[in-house]
Amino acid sequence: MRSPTGVEACSTGIYNEIKPLYRLVFTHAKGTVVPESHYGPVELVSSEEIVDVESDEADCMTRLTLRHGSNPQAWDQSLDRLATRLGPT
Q1: CA-to-CA distance for 25 and 21, rounded, in angstroms?
Q2: Can you give the residue ranges of every domain in the chain?
Q3: What is the chain's mean pLDDT, rounded?
């Protein structure tokens, strides 16, 4: 991925639990590629965390609960984009 400011980043992960329509738990390892011009050969700075996503029905709608402690603003932005793409309910 490349951010609007040009910072390159990568993400990897492993699915730990899949319960279709109800729960998804996975690791989220995020990293930033450090440019060779800065340190020489490319290095990957990474950290891995658990992401837990649950859904359930609430008032004839789907409620999504996402737990991931390090950067909730990033998930807020992603979920806002998803809501925009899905349109009004």
Answers
A1: 12
A2: 9-86
A3: 77
